[in-house]
Structures are given as C-alpha cells and as structure tokens.
Amino acid sequence: MNIDIKLHKNDLPEDLDLGKIVAVDGEFMGLNVKRDPLCLIQISSGNSDAHIIQLNRENYNAPNLNKILCDESIAKIFHYGRADMAHIKYYLKTDTKNILDTKIASKLGRSYSDSHSLKTLIKEFINIDISKQFQSSDFGGELSQAQLKYCANDVVYLHKIHEELQKILVREKRLNLYEDCLKFLKTRVDLDLALFKDDIWSH
C-alpha cells in the first residue's frame, strides 16, 4: 500500500476535512503520563493517508487537532485508546469523545486468540506483516522516514480492522458489551490519571 504521509508542525491545517470517522494514535517518550511527554499525534481518514502532527511541547497549542478530538460527531478509532487518551487529556487538555477501540473489540470478539496486538490484527485482516522495529525509538526529536512510516502504519489500517472486528462482534452477539466498555473508557482514563492502576473491582 502506498501511504500519503504528511508531517505537520504544531497543529493540523485549519481547512483539513478528514471525514466523520478518523483513526488516531499517539507517540510518547514512555508510558508514564506525567513524566513522559506526548510528542506526536497521527490521524488518518482511512484513505491511505496519514497526517502526523509534531506537537509544540512548550505550549501544546493545537486548536485544530483538539477540535476534531472533542467533536462528538466524529468517531475516533484507536488501538488501545486508554494510553493515548490519557496523554491527550494531560497534555492537550481535552477529552477525546466518540471513541472506538480495536484492542477492546479484539479482546471481546477474537476470544479464539491470545494475541491482540496491532501487528497481529493487521496480519489477520489485511494480510500485511508490518515492522514494529521503531516502536521504542525516540520520537522527541527529528523524525526519520522510517519513523514516519511506522507512525503511519499505526493508523492507516484501523478503519478496515474495526470494520472486520465489528462483524465478529455482531455475529457473536457481543456488540452491546463492546459499546458498554467504550462508555467506561473515559472513566478508566480518569482513574489512570488519578493513579488508580489496579482493578478496582477485584477482591
């Protein structure tokens, strides 16, 4: 697949229309939200495009991106949105609304597998074996072409993957359970930011 990759400094262009369903992913300096800053947000309309926003870490001023993230009329597809949403809320000061999540959908629908990574889902549903070589690379400085390709891969396939997972959820009569899990995701993010990492329902 040829991917149209565009790198934007600080924010998305004001007049960019990505449609009503976008795929979103973030890159951070680590998984500790309050220590490891949000560096990039990548977003795709699902038409073999990837818009990569290199955020201004001095002020995180990105009004055009924020407008999309908090727009309830635009669905946002994540893979493990919990981590991305926490960083977005902490650094961009916005709640991401109208969430879909391929990791949650996979865990509920693909009970025949123990692997729910994005790499696994791309291989199963798109039949492409992507490289995750740059997963742990430094996204805080100048970005290489290989890093940009890695970022693009994290969003360009999510529309198709979510579509296929939804078919399984409908077939297995688990769609309502998936939708209820999505409703709780904002609260799970708030619990993470309040440093409640454990399962609060456990004994």
Provide an overview of this structure.
InterPro entries: 3'-5'_exonuclease_dom, RNase_D-like, RNaseH-like_sf, RNaseH_sf. Residues 3-170 form the 3'-5' exonuclease domain. This is Ribonuclease D. The chain is an alpha/beta fold. It has one domain: Ribonuclease H-like superfamily/Ribonuclease H (Nucleotidyltransferase, domain 5). The chain is 39% helix and 17% strand. It contains seven helices and six strands; from the N terminus they run E-E-E-E-H-E-H-E-H-H-H-H-H. Strands 1-4-3-2-5-6 form a six-stranded mixed beta sheet, with helices on both faces. Helix 2 (81-92) links the parallel strand 5 (75-78) and strand 6. Helix 3 packs parallel to helix 6 (158-171).
What is the secondary structure topology, with strand pairs?
Blueprint: E1 4-9, E2 21-28, E3 38-44, E4 49-54, H1 63-69, E5 75-78, H2 81-92, E6 99-101, H3 102-109, H4 118-125, H5 145-156, H6 158-171, H7 175-193
Helix pairs in contact: 2-7, 3-6
Low-confidence stretches: none
User: What does the main sheet amount to?
Assistant: 6 strands, mixed
| Portion in beta strands | 15-25%
Total strands: 6
Order of helices and strands: EEEEHEHEHHHHH
Please give the domain count.
1
Structural class: alpha/beta
Intertermini distance: 48 Å
Strand order of the largest sheet: 1-4-3-2-5-6
Kindly report the name of the CATH homologous superfamily.
Answer: Ribonuclease H-like superfamily/Ribonuclease H
| Count of alpha/pi helices | 7
Write down the CATH class.
Answer: Alpha Beta
Helix content: 25-40%
> Mean pLDDT, nearest integer?
95
CATH structural fold name: Nucleotidyltransferase, domain 5
Shape: globular
